[in-house]
C-alpha cells in the first residue's frame, strides 16, 4: 500500500507541474497581446488619442472581473491566484502604462513594432507567426534559379520561414538591415522593379513576343547572308549551303545561330535545299523589282542584246537595259529587229552596231583577201590543237621550255568570234617559237602516229617567210587589241572612240614603214632561231617559200594586210549613227570658238532626228548654254565632252534651266560603243552553268546571273528586311 500511494502522489505532482507550465505560457501570450495593443494606442497621433482614458483614470480590476475571467478561462485555484496577482500588479503601480522597466517591458522589446514596416517597406508582419520579406516571399520559389543556394545561406528566413527574433532586428548589424543588403534580397528587388516597368501581363507577353520575333528575324538575316554569299560568288548553293551554315555556327561564339537551327521545328528546317532555293527566288524578285523601278523612272533607255548557247546546247538571249546592240540579223533594213522596232515604236530609235564586233570583222575581212595571212592563222589553230590535245605532248612542251629557261607559256586558241583572241594566240606562239620547234622535232623523232603531223607543222613554222609573217602579225594585232580594250571599257563614249580610232590609224601608218624599229627587231629575232634541222627533211613547200626574202614578203603580204585593215575600219566605223553622235562633239570645250553659229547646225540635226522629244526651245537653250561654256573656258575651267554632259544631267540647277539640253546629253551618255556588257553576261552564265551544275533550270540560271551582276557585294539591313517581309 505504501508503494501504491507513493506512485499516485508522483503522478499527481507531475500533472500539477504540467498544468502550471501550460498556464504560464498562456498568460505570457495574453500579456504580449495586451502590451501590443497598448503600444498601438500609444503610437497613434494626438488627435486620435485625445478621447482615450488617461493613466490616472484606469480603474482597478475588481473581483467581478476576476470572476468573469476565471469562469471563462480557468477552473483551478492555482490559475485564479496567478491571474489575480497579475491583475493586482497592474492596478497597484500602473507600471505597464507608465513605461517603466519591468518584466513585461522586456517582453515588449522582443516583439514586432509597426514602425519597422515604415522603415523597411518590404517587411510584412503576420500576427502570431512572424515577419516576412514581401519581395523575397513572392520571388523565391522552388523553381526559381539559385533557390537552393538561397536556402542554404539564409535558411529561408524572410522568404519561406518567418523571422521571430525581434531582439536582434534593429541596428546597422541587425537582421533587418543585413537582409536589405543581402544578395538575394537585391535580386528579388531587381525583379520587382523589372515587373513594374514591364507593366501588365499582356504587355509582358507582347514585349516577349516582339523580342522573340526580332531574334528570329536576326537569325533569318544570318541565313540570308550565308545564301547571298553563295549567290554572289557563283558557288553551288544547293550543295554548299548546309556546310556553310555549319561552319558559321561553329565560328559563332554566341551560339545563337546554332541554337536557332536546333530549336526549329521539324517542318521548319531552314538548312534544306528547298529553303535556299526559296531564298534565291525571294532575293531575285526584290532585286528585279528595284531594277525595274529604276528603269521606269529613267527618261531615256538603251537596250543591248545578244544571243549565245550554254553548256546544255540551249539558246539564250541576253538583254541589258542600257543600249541596243545588233549583229547582221538584228540590223536588217526591211526584216531585221531594227526595222521592226522602228515600225512598232519610233523612227527616232538609234541602232548602233557593236564597235568591238565591227573591229573584229574588219580584221577577218582584211585577212581573207590575203591567202598567206589566212594560212598562217590557220596554222596557229592546228598547232595549238596538236599540243593541247595530248597531255604527253603538253608536258613535253613545258619540259622543253624549262630547258630553254623560258617562262611556261600557255598556248591560246585563236577564234574568229572571240574579240582579238588572234592577238593573244600570236603572242603566245612568238614568245615560245624556239620551244615549239624543238617540241615538234622531238615528237617527229619518236616515229609514232603523231610524227607525220609534227613534221608538217615543223616545216611550216621553220619556213622563214612564215616565221616573218607570224612575227609581224604581233605588233599589228596588238595595236588593234589596244583599241578593242578601250572600246570595251564601261565608261567609254563616242568622243573617246574617235580619239582611240585616230591614234590606232596613226600607229598602223607607222607599221607600213619597213624600216621601222619593229621590223628590224623581228628580222634579228628570226635570224637567231634555228629554223633548219639536220634531222628533219624539208618539204617542197618550205623549199619553194625559202626563195622569198623578208622584204618581198612585207611588200606582197604584210603591207596589203595593213592597208585592208585601215580601209575596213574606216568603212565600218563611219555610219549614220556616228554622224548623229558626232553632233554631240559641240559639248567639247576644247573645240569651242567665238563663232556665233557654233553648234547650231548640230543642234538642228539632233532636233530633226528626235522631233517628238525636242522643239525650237532647244536652240534657245543652246545659245544660252554656249555663252556659259565660253565663259567657263575663258576662266580657265576646261571640261571634256563627257564631263559637260554629266554636269547637265547631274546638276539640278542646270537640269532645270536647260531641260532639253539635259535630255540630249543623257542620250549621248547612254549610247554604247560595244556589247562588252552582254559578253560579260555570257561569261557569267558559263561560270554558273558548269558541267557539275548542268541541271540548273533556265529560271534559276537567270536569277543567279542577275544577283551576280547586279547585286551588291553585301546586303544592307534595309534590303534584308524587304526580302524577309516578301519571303
UniProtKB/TrEMBL annotation:
Pfam family, one: Dimer_Tnp_hAT
Single GO term (MF): protein dimerization activity
Highest taxon in the source lineage: Eukaryota
HAT C-terminal dimerisation domain residues: 656-706
Stated name of the protein: HAT C-terminal dimerisation domain-containing protein
Amino acid at each position: 500500500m505504501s508503494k501504491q500511494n507513493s506512485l499516485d502522489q508522483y503522478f499527481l505532482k507531475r500533472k500539477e507541474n504540467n498544468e502550471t507550465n501550460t498556464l504560464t505560457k498562456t498568460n505570457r501570450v495574453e500579456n504580449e497581446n495586451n502590451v501590443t495593443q497598448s503600444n498601438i494606442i500609444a503610437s497613434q497621433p494626438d488627435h486620435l488619442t485625445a478621447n482615450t482614458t488617461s493613466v490616472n483614470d484606469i480603474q482597478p480590476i475588481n473581483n467581478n472581473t476576476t470572476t468573469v475571467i476565471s469562469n471563462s478561462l480557468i477552473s483551478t485555484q492555482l490559475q485564479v491566484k496567478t491571474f489575480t496577482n497579475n491583475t493586482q500588479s497592474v492596478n497597484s503601480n500602473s507600471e505597464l502604462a507608465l513605461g517603466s522597466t519591468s518584466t513585461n517591458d522586456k517582453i515588449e522589446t522582443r516583439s514586432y513594432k509597426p514602425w519597422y514596416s515604415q522603415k523597411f517597406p518590404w517587411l510584412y508582419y503576420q500576427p502570431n507567426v512572424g515577419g516576412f520579406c514581401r519581395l523575397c516571399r513572392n520571388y523565391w520559389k522552388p523553381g526559381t534559379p539559385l533557390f537552393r543556394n538561397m536556402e542554404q545561406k539564409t535558411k529561408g528566413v524572410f522568404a519561406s520561414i518567418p523571422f521571430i527574433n525581434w531582439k536582434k532586428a534593429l541596428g546597422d548589424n541587425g537582421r533587418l538591415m543585413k537582409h536589405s543588403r543581402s544578395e538575394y534580397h537585391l535580386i528579388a528587388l531587381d525583379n520587382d522593379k523589372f515587373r513594374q516597368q514591364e507593366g501588365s501581363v499582356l504587355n509582358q507577353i507582347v514585349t516577349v513576343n516582339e523580342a522573340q520575333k526580332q531574334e528570329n528575324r536576326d537569325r533569318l538575316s544570318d541565313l540570308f547572308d550565308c545564301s547571298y554569299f553563295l549567290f554572289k560568288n557563283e558557288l553551288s548553293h544547293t550543295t554548299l549551303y548546309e556546310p556553310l551554315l555549319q561552319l558559321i555556327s561553329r565560328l559563332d561564339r554566341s551560339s545563337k545561330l546554332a541554337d536557332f537551327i536546333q530549336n526549329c521545328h521539324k517542318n521548319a528546317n531552314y538548312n534544306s535545299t528547298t529553303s535556299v532555293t526559296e531564298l534565291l527566288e525571294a532575293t531575285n524578285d526584290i532585286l528585279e523589282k528595284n531594277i525595274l523601278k529604276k528603269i521606269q523612272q529613267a527618261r531615256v533607255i538603251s537596250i543591248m542584246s545578244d544571243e549565245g548557247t550554254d553548256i546544255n546546247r540551249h539558246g539564250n538571249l541576253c538583254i541589258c537595259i542600257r543600249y541596243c546592240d545588233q549583229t547582221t540579223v538584228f540590223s536588217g533594213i526591211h526584216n531585221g529587229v531594227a526595222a521592226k522596232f522602228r515600225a512598232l515604236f519610233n523612227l527616232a530609235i538609234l541602232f548602233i552596231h557593236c564597235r568591238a564586233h565591227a573591229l573584229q570583222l574588219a580584221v577577218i575581212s582584211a585577212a581573207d583577201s590575203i591567202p598567206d595571212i589566212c594560212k598562217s592563222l590557220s596554222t596557229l589553230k592546228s598547232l595549238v590543237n596538236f599540243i593541247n590535245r595530248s597531255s604527253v605532248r603538253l608536258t613535253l612542251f613545258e619540259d622543253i621550255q624549262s630547258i630553254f629557261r623560258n617562262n611556261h607559256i600557255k598556248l591560246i586558241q585563236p577564234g574568229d568570234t572571240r574579240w582579238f583572241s588572234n592577238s593573244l594566240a600570236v603572242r603566245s606562239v612568238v614568245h615560245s617559237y624556239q620551244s615549239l620547234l624543238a617540241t615538234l622535232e622531238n615528237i617527229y623523232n619518236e616515229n609514232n602516229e603523231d610524227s607525220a603531223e609534227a613534221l608538217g607543222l615543223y616545216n611550216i613554222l621553220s619556213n622563214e617567210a612564215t616565221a616573218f609573217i607570224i612575227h609581224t602579225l604581233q605588233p599589228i594585232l596588238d595595236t588593234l587589241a589596244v583599241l578593242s580594250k578601250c572600246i570595251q571599257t564601261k565608261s567609254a563614249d563616242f568622243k573617246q572612240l574617235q580619239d582611240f580610232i585616230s591614234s590606232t590609224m596613226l600607229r598602223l601608218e607607222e607599221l607600213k614603214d619597213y624600216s621601222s624599229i619593229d621590223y628590224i627587231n623581228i628580222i634579228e629575232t628570226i635570224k637567231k632561231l634555228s629554223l633548219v634541222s639536220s634531222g628533219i627533211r624539208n618539204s617542197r613547200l618550205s623549199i619553194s617559200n625559202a626563195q622569198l626574202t623578208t622584204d618581198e614578203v612585207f611588200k606582197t603580204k604584210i603591207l596589203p594586210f595593213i592597208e585592208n585593215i585601215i580601209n575596213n575600219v574606216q568603212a565600218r566605223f563611219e555610219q549614220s549613227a556616228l554622224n548623229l553622235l558626232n553632233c554631240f562633239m559641240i559639248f567639247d570645250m576644247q573645240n569651242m570658238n567665238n563663232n556665233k553659229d557654233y553648234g547650231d547646225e548640230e543642234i538642228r540635226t539632233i532636233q530633226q532626228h528626235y522631233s517628238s522629244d525636242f522643239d525650237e526651245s532647244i536652240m534657245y537653250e543652246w545659245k544660252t548654254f554656249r555663252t556659259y561654256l565660253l565663259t567657263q573656258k575663258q576662266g580657265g575651267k576646261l571640261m571634256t565632252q563627257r564631263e559637260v554632259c554629266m554636269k547637265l544631267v547631274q546638276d539640278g540647277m542646270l537640269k532645270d534651266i536647260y531641260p532639253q539640253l539635259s535630255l540630249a546629253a543623257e542620250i549621248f551618255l547612254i549610247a554604247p560603243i560595244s556589247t562588252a556588257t552582254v559578253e560579260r553576261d555570257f561569261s557569267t552564265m558559263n561560270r554558273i552553268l558548269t558541267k557539275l551544275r548542268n541541271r540548273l533550270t533556265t529560271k534559276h540560271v537567270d536569277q543567279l546571273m542577275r544577283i551576280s551582276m547586279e547585286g551588291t557585294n553585301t546586303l544592307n539591313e534595309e534590303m534584308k528586311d524587304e526580302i524577309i517581309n516578301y519571303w
